[in-house]
Amino acid sequence: MTIITQKNKKIEYNGLFETGCIIKNENLVVGYLKTFPCEMNKNVKNKEYELFESENVETCKKILDNFYKSFDSSTEKNKFYYNFNKWRKMWGITMILTQENYFSKEANIEYMSVSQFKAFAECEAQALHNIEISGENETTAFLEGKLFEAWVSGDRQLFMSKHPELISSRGPTAGQLKAEFNKVIKAAEKFLQQDFFKNIINKCEKQVILIGEIEGVKTKCALDLFDRETNSIYDIKCMKDFKEQWNKAEKAYVPWYYIYNYVLQLAVYREIVRQNFEEPKEVGLISATKEEITDIQALSFDFKLLDLELEHFKKNVKRYDDIKKGIVTPTYCGECAYCKSIKQITKFEVIK
Known about the structure:
Layout: E1 2-4, E2 12-13, E3 21-24, E4 28-33, E5 49-52, H1 57-69, H2 74-91, H3 105-110, H4 114-122, H5 124-133, H6 140-153, H7 156-162, H8 182-191, H9 195-203, E6 205-214, E7 217-227, E8 232-239, E9 245-247, E10 252-254, H10 256-259, H11 262-276, E11 283-289, E12 296-300, H12 303-324, H13 337-341
Parallel strand pairs: 1-6, 8-11
Antiparallel strand pairs: 1-2, 3-4, 4-5, 6-7, 7-8, 9-10, 11-12
Helix pairs in contact: 4-5, 6-7, 6-8, 11-12
């Protein structure tokens, strides 16, 4: 995992979130706790709280690694996690996003994401409800996508250890991957036969978490693949197929990457990369299908096209953020599962 802050607040750290608390102000400050509980003040050094100031990544990493090793139990780790989030809110410090908390309720409340944006566009009331009751739902399609990413990027064992529900627990297939996910593995293996794809994967960092600000709204993203030398972004997708699909709003068939708003997603990712680094050299989508005969594609997107998609995001993101904050009342689509679940009949609908 890589955490990268804004340009003027430099830190790069690979490891678990529990390894340390990163406190950011005008200068880089990395702090770590030694005892629990303690009163912490970001401007004061005391025997329970040490501050370390440096822009040396390796030195920061070493201190945080040593801190992680000092924990005796998972209880202490959880206690640190809870207390740090409590203190950072008191100080007005931005939440530190990690692989462990990226999809959490807290992260989704504090940050906007493309997934949230798409959900609000479909039904504002349902999107708000889903944020309030939980983090991001791990649907079958979501798990298939993450399984595909893990398989092609080399994080297979870690992913499987976090998702035992993908493993069969009964009958002759006990201990094996459930049959419905085999098509994802098949697609991943075909994907990895392509030297073009493997070269991209080998030169890129995986699952890079970035934060930025768009129209005054804090926005998060997790880049599947990020080439640090060129700032290029590559997103990995595993699709049912690459067929055009009917767009109800436009009343026309459109490419699959438009139906699922993947161009919008990459437009936002590009903007956040620009805020943290420089303009990406390339923004691409590399994909495979779950068909009987796996198909593969590699698409890059013109920056003028991405600019148009970003304008769409800018036009609506402030409203969606205000809904999250309770400033604006959400609209109800009347057709989604949430709207149906709360539907109340008060009078007859007259048919003429």
